[in-house]
Design goal:
By secondary structure, the chain is an all-alpha fold. The chain contains 9 helices and no strands.
């Protein structure tokens, strides 16, 4: 296509505008009304949605961390140990489990979590660790390592 005047060349934006708008309209395809069909409205809403999505990725991580901590704390209270003491005891016993793993064990494998709590308590007792971080005492039942282990496993080791 040949442009005889500069004015005609300026007005013809070419295929770039089509693809730029198409990218926005594809992101706005599930919207309703003018937010979907009118470019000036669609571009504002798409940009706002992308900002929310960016913030939500960080917030999702924070929410999951808070949920895991809540589950671990609740399970620790049942077994008369604080969450800090549990982590410290497991760390000293060279049991490396992250928050997600501990929370999953607390929710879906309560017997396994009970054994981990007993191991942590026993390790802290042997090393003379005193938890001074929490001022209140947990309200759960005091665990003994021998009580939570399976009798068959104990007989097998002897």
């Amino acid at each position: 296509m040949v442009f005889l005047t500069v004015a005609n060349w300026v007005r013809a934006r070419g295929p770039d505008e089509f693809w730029r708008k198409r990218k926005i309209f594809r992101l706005a395809a599930h919207y309703i009304g003018r937010r979907r069909n009118c470019y000036s409205v669609a571009v504002r809403n798409v940009h706002r949605a992308l900002v929310y999505a960016t913030k939500a990725r960080r917030l999702k991580k924070q929410d999951m961390k808070a949920l895991w901590d809540t589950r671990i704390t609740a399970a620790c209270e049942q077994h008369n140990i604080t969450a800090f003491s549990l982590r410290e005891g497991l760390d000293r016993a060279n049991i490396m489990l992250d928050r997600k793993s501990l929370a999953d064990l607390a929710a879906w494998e309560p017997q396994t979590f009970k054994c981990l709590a007993a191991v942590a308590q026993e390790k802290l007792r042997l090393e003379g660790f005193i938890d001074g971080t929490d001022k209140k005492e947990p309200t759960g039942v005091t665990l003994n390592l021998k009580d939570v282990m399976l009798d068959a496993w104990l007989k097998e080791k002897k």
